[in-house]
Structures are given as C-alpha cells and as structure tokens.
Amino acid sequence: MSVQYQAIGWNRQKRIYDSILAIGSALYLAIFVGAGVVLYPTATAETLLIRGFGTLALVLLHVILCIGPLCRLDRRFLPLLYNRRHLGIAMFLMALVHGVFSMIQFHALGDVSPLVSLFVSNTRFDSLANFPFQVLGFVALLILFLMAATSHDFWLHNLSAPVWKRIHMMVYLAYGLLVAHVVLGALQSDTNAALAILLGIGLCTVALLHLLAGGKERRIDRIVAAAEAEGFVEVCRVEHIAEKRAKIVSLQGERVAVFRYEGKVSAVSNVCRHQNGPLGEGKIIDGCITCPWHGYQYLPESGASPAPFTDKVATFQTRIVGEKVLVHPSAHPPGTRLEPAVIQLAHAGAQR
Amino acid sequence: MTEPLRRLHFSMWIVLSALLVALFAAGLMVRRPTMPKNPSVSWEKYK
User: Is A191 part of the contact surface with chain B (CB cutoff 8 Å)?
Assistant: First the structure.
C-alpha cells in the first residue's frame, strides 16, 4: 500500500482564492511602483521593486497572521482559512524577491561574497539606530523558506502533526524578526511617517486579535475544565452533529445518542426500548427521536414516548461551552426531563 | 489546537506583543534625522 500525494489539489475555491491573490498582488505592485515613480522621481527601478515586494510581503504576512484569530473569534471568517497555505507561499516568494534584489543591490558589487558581505559589512550590534537589520531579514527569510518548503501535506503526515505545528509556529519568530527588520531598517532612514503608522496599526491589530482569541479560548478551557471537574465529558463539537441527527458516543461503557435539533442539544440512551435498535442512527421526525428500525419515537428532552405510548429511555445532562458539547455520563432514570443545552445563534445556523 | 498548544500560543503572544511594541517604540525614539545637524544653515534656501 502507498499514499499518493498531489502537488496541489486544485478545485474551484482554490482557483478563485489564488486568482484574487495574484490579481491583488499585481495591482499592489503596479500602484506602489507607479506612485513611487511620481512621488520619488530620483528613486531607481530596483529600489522601487525592493520596497514594493518588501511591503507586499509584509502586508500579506499581516493578513496571514490575522486569519487564525479572526476565525477563532468569528466562524464567518473560516473561508479565509481554507487556502492560507497558498497565501503563505506567495508571501515567501515576495519576501524572496525582496531579499534577492536587496542582496544584488547592496552586496553583490563588492570584493567579497554577497552572503559574507551581508554579515560583515555592518557589525554594529550594539546600536539600535545603526543595527545590522538586514541580518534580521535574512534569518526571517530562512524561517519562511523552511515553512514554505514543509507546507505540503506530505510533510504534515511524515513529520507528524505536533512537529509540523511546532515548525510552523516559528512564523511568530519570523514576524518578530521582520518587525525588527523594518523598525531598525526602513523606519530609521525614511522621513515619511506613513510606513511607521501603517506598521504600528498592523502590529497592534495582529497582537490584539491574537490576545483576544487566546483570551476567549482560555475562558472556554476554564469552563470546560470546571464542567469536567463536575464529571462532564467533552464528546464533540457542535458542528459535528448534523441538524436533527445524532452523534453516538460511548460514556462509561454505555452508548449515548447526542441529538441536535432546533438550536438545542439533548442526549438519551442509544438503545431503543422496543428491540434495542440504535436510536442515534435515527433522526428527529415531528420533534421526536425516531428509531431507524421500527419507528418507535421518544421526546429528546425527556426520553419519553409521546402519549398514548409509555416507552421511556434514559436521559443524560448536556452542556455547550463555546463550540464544545459536553455530556454527563450518569444516566437519569428513563423518562426524566432534562433541560437541553442551547446552541448559540452563530452555531445554530452553521449546519442549516 | 490542543489545550497545551493553545496555552503556549497565548503565552507566546503576551510576551511577543509586549516585546514588539517596546521595540517599535524604541525604534521610533532612536530614529535619526535624515538631514545633518547644522543650525547655521537654513537648508530650505537651497531647495
């Protein structure tokens, strides 16, 4: 047996995403260079390209870093996450062009190798104003290369998810190095305040979004931990249960069907009282859990059959924290009505 | 993300935010003037 990998699994969404990215990048460069020619007539084409590609890479990096926390704060941003890897590779290529052009412009005309020149031409590591900022950009570019080179699923599967994730969390180190690269480089010699203002706004936005998203998840983790201390068990996420369907989970050896319906979640025993049919494989019809075998019905909140029938199944207490569904494994006596957990509005609409 | 990774991520951003904002402020403070200091010359005259 073998696993086959495709370079890129193209589909319509990816084509649209990449087209917007390519057109947006080309427009940005055209506007940047065009405006540069008008505003700075003495600037050379190389200088404008170095600045254009450098700022474009920086803008893309800010967008990339905002996508993750935005998605954690609001699910409506999830489509942006869909093809973030292509965005990352595009950003690396822009940064690479910026780096190569800079090496040619500033280090290729001496009598030492450009790489050696990069490290020895300025050694003022003790000065903030004259710091060798190009070295910072070079190290950041190496990190971005490592990330771009290992971005394919092949590496995700072969390195294992934890190792891959650790490597790709180095993007924060690269971001820090790039902010330092710009602050100690371009900002030191540029009289125009626009770059400083834009970088300040970008930095504050990225940091604030990550802190807000991290804070939100921390609160959820604490509530989950408190619920788990009371005996609740996290069984799945809300979006993993289809509307009017159930997810079957095993709690302390007993199978429990966790149903989602009308913005609520209830849990009952998975075993039908008629012939032990799997209730969780059935669906909710006319407000009742309906066994897939012979159509026996139960109210999801109480596990009791609607009148005039008298069959009852055990019920389980449910809770929803953030997007997580928790169920208490202690079964309540058959027919016990329990308040269903209410799904927040944003999640309720997700599966409809 | 797993819970330990989420915690690491959050802690990392608390430190990174403080560091980068401090660096940004320090970088702006040490920003050198692009015109050489020469009080006896009013360079606007020669524009």
Answer: yes
Chains A & B: contacts with CB separation below 8 Å: 71
Q: How far is CA A199 from CA A74, A97, A204, in A?
A: 25, 21, 8
Q: Which residue has the tokens 């991520």?
A: B9
User: In which region does residue A296 sit, left (phi positive, over 0), alpha (psi from -120 to 50) or beta (all else)?
Assistant: beta
Rounded distance between C-alpha atoms, residue B41 and residue B47, angstroms: 12
Q: Does B44 touch chain A (CB under 8 A)?
A: no
Query: DSSP label at A107?
Result: H
ipTM, 2 dp: 0.76
Residue A324: both structure tokens together: 């997580």
CA distances from A6 to A159, A213, A349 (A): 17, 33, 34
pTM for the structure as a whole: 0.76
pLDDT tens string A252-309: 888 999 999 999 999 999 999 988 889 999 999 999 999 998 899 999 999 999 989 9
N-terminal to C-terminal alpha carbon distance within chain B = 58
Written in H, E and C, the secondary structure of chain B is: CCHHHHHHHHHHHHHHHHHHHHHHHHHHHCCCCCCCCCCCCCHHHHC
Is B13 in Cβ contact with A207 (below 8 Å)? yes
DSSP string, A301-332: TT-BPPTT---B--EE-EEEETTEEEE-SSPB
